Hints:
PH-domain like, Fumarate Reductase Cytochrome B subunit, 12% strand, 7-stranded mixed β-sheet, 57% helix, two-stranded antiparallel sheet, 2 domains, alpha+beta
Amino acid sequence: MQYVWDLFVRVFHWSLVVAFAIAFITHKSEWHLIMHVNAGFMAGYLIIARIVWGFLKTGYASFNAFPLNPIQAIKYVWEILKGHPKQFIGHNPAGSIIIYLMLIVGLLTVATGILKFNDGWLIDAPDLLQTLHQFFAWFWLFLVGIHVVGVITESIVHKDNLIMAMITGVKRTHDSNSYVLDKNVSRETLHTSAMLSTGLKRMMHSLTNLGKLSNKLYLMQEEENTPAKFYLKLADNGGVFFSMYAGDETLLLESYVFNSKQHLLEKIDLLKKIGCEDKYYKLLTSNMKRMYFIVKTEDCLIAASPLYDTDSERMQALGILKKKLVTAEVEDLIE
């Protein structure tokens, strides 16, 4: 028996299995979109960390330990078909190709997902990005299938449980039946872990912030796509008025009181028609030095905004109002 897979590789392997499974299972559901995105980011973090790990002196996990060699891979597959393949302590040549492909395709899947999720960032081609994202995801699944078949085949041929080896880190070899700890691998791994600890923490912190930013952008996009609403309400004096809220339930506008619901609905229709024109808005300051705006025509005051502490807040709210007016919906709370 020989110690082959260090703790990092084992944690990476099974964490990536979980992240990929969650991302793939939730990819069709709008309700689970945040879960899908977070799982995708986790897969991306893991792949980047594994690539960094592979370029360092980490024993059998190092890329130097399983170089890309298509000719040797073909020979190995041929030897398997003949029933007499050579046993490799680390990755065999055929498995190495699949490992490299899974890392590359995994990164491409995550990258296209990020670009699609942040529509318009760097590449403004949502349909193309969606197609590429789905292609790479399915190709990744195909590679995973080949990997699983290869693991099962090698386990049977060499009478060695490779799945258990990725849990315990230990593989059976023909050279010895006793457990042998490869001290060089262990020493290199520990040394590399010490060197990477600070840098890896910083990288994960940066990637986590990127994930939070993407979630924030998603919520902003959801808010952008959620229509504003005019809520029709009954005033204390028996009249009617409306309160207009943005998609995130932020109050944008409140009307003056009108005599009838029909009159109020007419004002809402008028507001939708004139709402994009600056001449119907008047910027004012209250006695308490707080800022607001009103909407008025030549013969009628229609509505007023809440009070704002700064002019920038007022102008931001006014911009949202203009953008939301045309598509705003009406909900009757009077009846």
